[in-house]
């Protein structure tokens, strides 16, 4: 994907994201955030990020693979341990990638 | 005016420690963009226009998988729904600000600016809280843009054989664990993740959005059950 469709994608992402960022700053005093929405929004990051991670680790070549032969799953579990302990993006990537390269070389 | 400048600079200064995390994240977003075939100019342009790393990484992964345009846009919006929460929390502090100032600073509202601002306000609310927030947002935005450009230039040096696309799920893992603050959040993640595995075969990567919504629903449900138990125990 390149050129015009790509730039239109960026603009669409940005317009929606700006609307979300500006929403209640703009509406203050006019509209209050409903309680049910506040409760639901709290779970957006955990849910969306897990929905991105789980299939990426379990479908290495477009096919479900839950065996020890799936090096993405193994390296991902290693990365998850680092993520859990450090909550640091950089360290999780460094350890996960090194594990991935080692398992690939074996 | 003097006091406003003072609060702006205090905000910028308080953001310094968190910039250590902003630099690598912006670098990663640009390198990842180049790895799925974007030019360095497009990679830096994405960070400049969108300025929301997690949604950028998600969309880049979808570009790599050849997903359809609309699903990519919807996915980015779902991930960025959290900004409405920040917006509602910051709104009272910005209520007397003119729109020509609060609109551009809303555009550069980030997780990190919100975090620094609210943790400072928890201890002490400055004379000009809006300007304190502007200071944090500006410092983080500037750092992000410079790092994103650097990453776009570096990205072209990374060979495809490194399998750098595996950095996507790894970065999401770290962000996910940071969000697992209590049991309902863990349940939201488990339901979202497992649903995404089951619905992986749905057309247009729609499984991702379905999984996200089910995960959010599960989190809300788990929290209300926990609240009921607490009430029961109190009685």
Automatic annotation (TrEMBL), chain A:
Enumerate the transmembrane spans.
6-28, 40-57, 89-105
Origin: domain of life: Bacteria
UniProtKB keywords: Membrane, Transmembrane, Transmembrane helix
Query: What InterPro entries does UniProt report for this protein, alphabetically?
Result: Brnchd-chn_aa_trnsp_AzlD (IPR008407)
What is this protein's record name? AzlD domain-containing protein
Q: Where is the organism placed in the taxonomic lineage, from the top? A: Bacteria, Bacillati, Chloroflexota, Anaerolineae, Anaerolineales
UniProtKB/TrEMBL annotation, chain B:
Lineage: superkingdom: Bacteria
Instruction: Give a single Pfam family match.
Output: AzlC
Q: Name one GO biological process term.
A: L-valine transmembrane transport
Work out whether the entry's keyword set contains Transferase. no
List, alphabetically, the InterPro entries matched.
Answer: Brnchd-chn_aa_trnsp_permease
Q: Where in the cell is it found?
A: Cell membrane
* Transmembrane parts of this sequence: 16-36, 69-94, 131-154, 160-178, 208-226
Please tell me where this protein is predominantly located.
Answer: membrane
Task: Show the GO cellular component annotation of the record.
Answer: plasma membrane
Keyword field? Cell membrane, Membrane, Transmembrane, Transmembrane helix, Transport
**Membrane topology recorded in Swiss-Prot or TrEMBL:** Multi-pass membrane protein
PANTHER family for this protein? INNER MEMBRANE PROTEIN YGAZ (PTHR34979:SF1)
Query: What's the family?
Result: Belongs to the AzlC family.
Name it: AzlC family ABC transporter permease
Provenance organism: Candidatus Desulfolinea nitratireducens
Print the organism lineage: Bacteria, Bacillati, Chloroflexota, Anaerolineae, Anaerolineales
